[in-house]
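=== RUN LOG ===
request id: a7f3
mode: sequence -> structure
chains: 1
length: 259
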Amino acid sequence: MDLDKIISRPNIEKTMFTEWMTANQLHEEARSLTYAQFPTKWTWHAKEKEWRKRRGGKKTIGRIYYAQPTSGEKYYLRMLLNTVKGCRSYEEIRTVDGVVHPTYKSACYALGLLNDDKEGDNCIKEASHWASAPQMRQLFCTILLFCEVTDPAKLWQTNWELLSEDIQRRQRRILNFQALELNSLQIKSLLLAEIEHLLAKGGKSLKDFPGIPLPDSSILEERAILCPRNETVDQINTYIMSQIHWWQSLHPTNYYVTK
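=== RESULT ===
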């Protein structure tokens, strides 16, 4: 599907995005801003469907609709709109140093936006402002599965804390033990186990991504994670680990253990 042709049809509805390009055609001073920056200097008038130069000192933050890395050209178009300034057409958005690139992705490459895993890292950092921790973990796995990550270890190391924000809270709820305190190694192992589970759905494993550690099974079996306050904790933990599937062992409940 040709995104440019569809959006460029004469009868297409005017939007904030299409009229951003119109404003760039009509006003030279508008061309110093990216699409994301535009609302800081210009105001959108919905009734007339046009941008007008902002009056007064009120500050506004612009935001572009989120696009998954798997959404193809829409994702790369969005990436460009955070970078390029003053574009008056879709062709100009794809133009780098006078060269019109055939796709938004190739334009991103020409601008260096896809080098050094910057693409995936920026995607995770931005999503952290609105996405839940489970959504963040799914996004991380999506990037590993469908994007060309050159340094998986670095992507993991710089983002694991964002992916694990709810791990301790979840374990407290599962075990009904609000005083539970997990250390960073325990949190990482629980997180890695969940990521391994998500990757398996896509036919991959953490072993396929060099540098990302594997879950530490010895940590996952620790009493602080499984059963922190029972007088017969060692016996119960041993029995649980022998009876249930490894993945289910991260969430021990009466549903799995019937003895």
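=== NOTES ===
The beta strands are 42-45, 50-53, 95-96, 99-100.
Residues 243-259 have pLDDT under 50 and may be disordered.
=== END ===
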